[in-house]
Amino acid sequence: MANTQIAAARSGEITTEIERVAERENRDPEFVREQVAEGQAVIPANRNHDALDPMIIGREFSTKVNANIGNSETTSDLETELEKLHTAVHYGADTVMDLGTGSDLDEIREAHVEHSPIPIGTVPLYEAVKRAESPEEITTELLLAVIEKQAEQGVDYMTIHAGILAEHLPLTDGRKTGIVSRGGSIMAQWMEERGEQNPLFRVYDDICEIFAEHDVTFSLGDSLRPGSLADACDEAQYAELDTLGELTRIAWDHDVQVMVEGPGHVPMHRVAENIARQQDVCDGAPFYVLGPLVTDIAPGYDHITSAIGAAMAAQAGAAMLCYVTPKEHLGLPEEEDVRDGLAAYRIAAHSGDVANGLPGARDWDDALSEARYDFDWREQFRLALDPDRARDYHDQTLPGDNYKEARFCSMCGVDFCSMRIDQDARDVEDGEMSELETTTDLESSPAAEVNLPPVGTHDSSVPSKDETGEDALVERAGDD
């Protein structure tokens, strides 16, 4: 019996996970199977993650969004981390990466796997550093032990920084911002201190065997991604990418699923180039990008600078976008920052799907536009990406229930509302203007779930705290 999704797909089997993905994406199960078999898409689904609602990451499917969470030495505990997980699912994250570096990492990770309906990703190198107490003290035995333990705990995908090699390090000389990947900098320090090759690269076949046993998906880390526009698309970044292509093919030989991580900071005119190059070098393996940020001048607004690049990346073929919050480069994000970051990235992902003509992707836009033209305020709010935000902004100036029937908002007022004027013109008897097309039916839309309201993409729930402080299950937005 096949042990991994890609092995099963290669043997012609349509797994229960493939069936669920096909349902959620409104695609033929056989098409899903072919994409997984060819390595063009991944279904991160560790066999030990019982709470998982399977999803797929691939350029032929709806663009997905990841949210990073995690504690540090000075902030956060189990309760807070579960709240972060709840917030991420509530506002529409498709996966979550636990990047914790603080205390109680095992307890928190196990709780996430127990409760999360979306795939959980980790960076095992962080725990290895914590256990070794300094990067240069890390051993290959420790790395493999941490990776195996996290796989047994049910982690669905792991970032493995195996692509940064000793011969790549001199290529970073002359950069403006050096090595900005946390894992990349740790591996670089290890190699500089020890004078040896990257241990993750040396034991990569062993990691593949662990991943195959538990069906963990590789997220091959881009350790040399650019941390500034000046460093984008340089020799160091592309040299590592070539190695990531080799590692992709080795993982496939082990029947292990792979996606590849990408930059970073990239000017707008080179975003598509990055996607095309990765797709060529890595034989079409799904590309998972951070941003990219298209300008470096806007600390405090990097959810915007990066969402611009993310939308372009999605249109060019990126399969998953890693969200950036307004706190990027400045501090740990709080709940409102997570909300703003996920909103920006859901917009970017959806915009890419619309631009790429994914089946039914624009139906949500059309339905909301029709509600807006009809002054159906309640339907507008219901269909909004963030219904609470839309309702709150409207009610700040027109709070009464009577204004939910009004044919204007406070922006234009009664006399200058263009849509009201247009409606009145169309009501003129024997006029030249005809009726409009307003018949979008979201119930029959062929769109994937993530391109239909509500924003949250899963039917499961994660623990939160109710008003009394007792544990409660809080459903995602729009379930009521």
UniProtKB/TrEMBL annotation:
Pfam family, one: ThiC_Rad_SAM
Binding site for Zn(2+): 265, 329
Enzyme class: lyase
Region (Disordered): 428-480
InterPro entries (UniProt xref): ThiC, ThiC/Bza_core_dom, ThiC/BzaA/B
Reactions this protein catalyses: 5-amino-1-(5-phospho-beta-D-ribosyl)imidazole + S-adenosyl-L-methionine = 4-amino-2-methyl-5-(phosphooxymethyl)pyrimidine + CO + 5'-deoxyadenosine + formate + L-methionine + 3 H(+)
Residues where [4Fe-4S] cluster binds: 409, 412, 417
Enzyme Commission code(s) on record: 4.1.99.17
Cofactor binding remark: Binds 1 [4Fe-4S] cluster per subunit. The cluster is coordinated with 3 cysteines and an exchangeable S-adenosyl-L-methionine.
Keywords: 4Fe-4S, Iron, Iron-sulfur, Lyase, Metal-binding, S-adenosyl-L-methionine, Thiamine biosynthesis, Zinc
GO biological process: thiamine biosynthetic process; thiamine diphosphate biosynthetic process
Biased composition (Acidic residues): 429-440
Residues that bind substrate: 68, 97, 126, 161, 181-183, 222-225, 261, 288
Stored NCBIfam families: PRK09284.1, PRK13352.1, thiC
Name this polypeptide is given: Phosphomethylpyrimidine synthase
Origin species: Natrarchaeobius halalkaliphilus
